[in-house]
Amino acid sequence: MPNNILLKRLQAVEYLRGLDDETLGKIASGARWKVFAADAVVFWEGDSESNLYYLQYGLLKVLKASPDGREQVLRHISAGEIFNEVGVLAKRPNPATAVALEESGVWLIPRQSIEEVLLENPKMALQIIESMADKFIDLISLAADLSLKSVKARFAKLLLEQAEGDLIERGSWATPTEMASRLGTVPDVLSRVIRELTKAGIIEMNKHHFRILDREQLKQQAMIQGK
C-alpha cells in the first residue's frame, strides 16, 4: 500500500494541521503498513515501542489488566486517530495495552520521523501537547466516574454519549463483556442494570441497537452518585 495514501490521511489529523505536504511526506515516508486481526494485540503494556500509530480502519481498545485478567478499558480508538504519543514522545514503556476489536489496518510511523519534524516545527509540538492534555482530562473524568458514580449512572452516561438521535448501534465495542470492561464492572452486574432500565421504560435493546425511550430519565440516571 503506497505511503501517499497515508499522506492524504495525515492531512486530516488535527494536530498536524498547518504542515505542508513536504513535511507530511517526511512523516509518511518511513511508515509501515500492518493489519491486525480481531483480538490481536497491537502492543502490550510495558513494551518499549518506538512507533507512532495511525489507525486507517477498524476499532481498537486501550486497556489496563489486573493479574486475574480483569480489564478496565481506558479508551477506544477509531479510524482516523493517531495514538501511542506517550510511548514515542516520553520514551517510556507503554502504560497500557492496545487490542484490535475488529480487523484493523494501522500505519506504524517511526519515532525518528516524528522527532525530525518536531525539531523543525515547534508549533506541531504544542498541538501534540494540547491533544495529550485533552486525553489526560478524559482519563481524570474516567477515574472520577469509576470512583463516584454507580454502574447504572456510568452506563446511562455512556448511552447518552454514544447515541445518534435515540439509537446506539451495538458494534464490536457494545458486547456485554466489552461494555462491562469499559464501565469498570462485570457482565452480570451490567445485565442487571440493563434489565432495570428496560423495565422502567427508559431504554429498550435488541441484537442491533439500544434505543433511548425516555431521555430525561436517562439523564437523571447518569447523574446518580454512589455505588
Q: Total helix count?
A: 9
CATH topology of the largest domain: Jelly Rolls
SSE ordering: HHEEEEEEHEEHHHEHHEEH
Tally of distinct domains: 2
Oligomeric category? single chain
Proportion of β residues? 15-25%
Radius of gyration: 19 Å
Poorly predicted parts: none
End-to-end gap:
49 Å
What's the CATH first level of the largest domain? Answer: Mainly Beta
Q: The biggest beta sheet, please?
A: 4 strands, antiparallel
Q: Short summary of the structure?
A:
With 227 residues, this protein is of the alpha+beta class. It has helices at residues 3-10, 21-29, 85-89, 111-120, 122-148, 151-162, 176-183, 187-199, 215-222; strands at residues 32-36, 41-43, 51-57, 59-65, 71-78, 82-83, 97-100, 104-110, 167-169, 203-205, 209-212.
Question: Could you please describe the fold and organization of this structure?
Answer:
The protein has helices at 3-10, 21-29, 85-89, 111-120, 122-148, 151-162, 176-183, 187-199, 215-222, and strands at residues 32-36, 41-43, 51-57, 59-65, 71-78, 82-83, 97-100, 104-110, 167-169, 203-205, 209-212. It folds into two domains: 3-131, Jelly Rolls; 149-222, Arc Repressor Mutant, subunit A (Orthogonal Bundle). Helix content is 44%, strand content 23%. The longest helix is centred in the middle third of the chain and has 27 residues, at 122-148. A hairpin with a 5-residue loop joins strand 4 and strand 5. It has nine helices and eleven strands. By secondary structure, the chain is of the alpha+beta class. Helix 1 (3-10) packs across helix 2, helix 6 packs across helix 9 (215-222) and helix 7 (176-183) packs across helix 8 (187-199).
